[in-house]
Design brief:
With 309 residues, this protein is of the alpha+beta class. It has helices at residues 15-25, 36-52, 71-74, 76-82, 85-95, 143-151, 240-243, 246-249, 254-260, 287-290; strands spanning 8-10, 27-31, 65-68, 102-112, 155-161, 173-174, 193-194, 202-206, 211-212, 222-231, 296-298, 304-306. The strands form three sheets. A seven-stranded mixed beta sheet has the order 1-2-8-5-10-4-3. It has a three-stranded antiparallel beta sheet with strand order 7-6-9, with no helix packed on it. β11 and β12 form a beta hairpin. The N and C termini lie far apart (66 Å). Bound molecules: 2-oxoglutaric acid. Residues 110, 119, 172, 211-213, 224 line the site of 2-oxoglutaric acid.
């Protein structure tokens, strides 16, 4: 495959037009999606968490990269962004053929520090088909899941630049048009472009396009806010019920509660049974947000009871 240009569009471009670009290229930049003031507020919400985050410590995640999660629990500004109507409109338009409901998949600030090496190019949809195996084991993929993932688009990703993204500081590298390559083919090096953009602009990309963080050969950190969405019937990468548990989620916007997963997807996907008291079996997930939950524990015999019983 040859190099294809990275399309840049105004942030208010209609979803249908953006979805067509995403179908063809797997990526597009939305110019000035957020104002400089919004970017500064997001950074000030998150700075203490970002500063405290330990570096990744593996070949894929890097050794000079931090990934700060639980953004829906931690940041009011990130909550607003996750339910921005421009994004939800695009998520619904692009993913509509593959699901009836959508949910949050990942919320993360990715900070690439000076000296970080280029990340292994990958497709994000591999999370569902890749085995968790020692690195030299074969096969690496479940072939059935891998094939199923080529028939659908399982996710839509956003990367809001919180600093300028430059080739030098590790802007995301993406290979436009690499979405339809067969599973045993990878794009050549010359197919990759750096998604250079000023702070406040946003790279939108699919789970099928090859991409990865660039190397940071600059003196400063590159920081991006990564919010990804997936189909209502797939497992979320970032376990939202644990990262944003009911005691926090109960006070959030109902649209966000639904995106976190606190709404059934379809007639019965995602119901739950409060373990105590008995009697409320097969409840709607919203119930977990309405009722203050008394803590439960298991006794020495493994039987369930309220903590104060
Ligand atoms: O930080 C980036 O630019 C991309 C990171 C990425 O693709 C990943 O960690 O999966």
């Amino acid at each position: 495959m040859s190099q294809r240009e990275l399309q840049i569009r105004p942030a208010d471009t209609p979803s249908e037009e953006l979805a067509k670009i995403l179908d063809r290229d797997g990526c597009v930049v939305l110019k000035d999606f957020a104002s400089k003031a919004q970017v500064e507020s997001i950074k000030s919400d998150l700075q203490p968490f970002i500063e405290a985050t330990m570096r990744s410590n593996d070949d894929f995640g890097g050794f000079k990269t931090t990934r700060t999660g639980a953004l829906m629990a931690r940041s009011p500004r990130c909550r607003e962004l996750a339910i921005d109507p421009r994004l939800l409109g695009l998520v619904e338009t692009f993913l509509a053929p593959y699901a009836n409901t959508f949910q949050l998949h990942v919320t993360q600030v990715i900070r690439v520090l000076p000296g970080e090496k280029v990340q292994l190019p990958h497709r994000d949809r591999w999370v569902w088909s890749q085995f968790q195996l020692p690195p030299d084991a074969k096969p690496e993929f479940n072939p059935v899941l891998d094939r199923l993932m080529t028939d659908i688009e399982p996710q839509l990703n956003t990367m809001l630049a919180l600093t300028d993204f430059t080739k030098e500081n590790g802007a995301t590298r993406v290979a436009p048009g690499s979405t339809k390559l067969p599973h045993d083919e990878e794009p050549p090096e010359e197919a990759y472009l750096s998604a250079e953009m000023t702070a406040g602009s946003m790279l939108v990309f699919t789970g099928s396009v090859f991409h990865g963080a660039g190397a940071n050969e600059s003196e400063g950190a590159r920081m991006g806010l990564n919010i990804d969405y997936t189909l209502g019937w797939l497992r979320q990468e970032d376990n939202q019920y644990l990262s944003c548990p009911p005691e926090i989620a109960k006070d959030l916007d109902p649209k966000l509660q639904a995106l976190l997963g606190y709404t059934a997807a379809g007639p019965s996907l995602g119901y739950f049974t409060p373990p105590l008291p008995a009697g409320r079996d097969l409840s709607a997930p919203e119930r977990a947000l309405r009722r203050p939950t008394k803590p439960v524990r298991l006794d020495a015999d493994g039987r369930i009871g309220f903590v104060e019983d």
